[in-house]
Amino acid sequence: MLIGVPKEIKNHEYRVGLTPESVAELVQAGQKVVVETGAGAGIGATDAEYRKAGAKIAKTAAKIFETADMIVKVKEPQPVECEMLRPGQILYTYLHLAPDPKQTKALIKSGAICIAYETVTSDSGDLPLLKPMSQVAGRLAIQAGAVALQKEAGGRGVLLGGVPGVAPAKVVVIGGGVVGFNAAQMAVGLQADVTILDRDADTMEQLSNHFGASARVVRSTPSVLADLITTADMVVGAVLIPGAAAPKLITKKMLKTMQSGAVLVDVAIDQGGCFETSKATTHADPTYIVDEIVHYCVANMPGAVARTSTYALNAVTLTHAKAIAVKGWKQALLDNPHLKNGLNVAEGKLTYAAVGDDLGIKYVNADEVLA
Question: Cβ neighbours of residue 177 under 8 Å, at least 6 residues apart?
Fold first, then answer.
């Protein structure tokens, strides 16, 4: 199979679908790889390194989309990329379709086979291809939020850890999953005053056992959240419903109860955001202000630390990429029900129920396509 790796074109996206090491592994498995020139520049990988690994270098993305059997990316295809996809071609990348009807319809129209990293599952029921980026995003959320709290950024002018004689910032983390756990770890490490909200009893127990007296773990209810945000300096939205749009937990009306200059960091923005006033931003222009509240809603947060993110991502995506290439997409999905859960669009049909329910688009079971 010919595997194509185009250069990412989303604003300030520096990650790349395959590292040179991953290319070498695929070539050793009998596959062919073509990489767009400069695709690895954001992680410090040169065309020469890709050639040494066994890849050919293409001058344009158009050439890759024209010839490759499978496209391996990081971010969702942009409109110009959707137009280059063709029937039967495999797209293996993050998609986040639930809040994006335009992309969903474009992929359906393309006739391509679209496998989304973020809905591939595991025996334990988690999302292993999303996890490393959730870890990165959770940690970055505190780093980015701390900068947004600075006065020149529109924030309250508060230092997360305070100093002797001055109280630390109050950080509220909504959701105790992978993103929330990593955000809380960073905030605790910076000596902030941290409260984590969740609704799952097992998760709350695990968080309490881990953090002890370093962070409060509280059962999330609308009234508890409404009370906590009135004194919060930073709120991190870390909720996830796999494949579906995120719930809106903080409304525009609630912003008026918050302290002027407080910061909202919406890590759920890829799935539409968990704050009513959230809208996707970029690394070029990451924040905006609504009712004196700073919003940080960058939709590709891990792209800021591209090298770390790319290697972490390849560590979990390569095994499936190899299986798809060696076996063909149908057999690979039939052999692995967890990979089958990653199938979102195939041969002109939507195959993921949560996306169909959110967007009001007819969908079919993946098994119907694989039959």
Answer: 134, 198, 203, 238, 239, 240
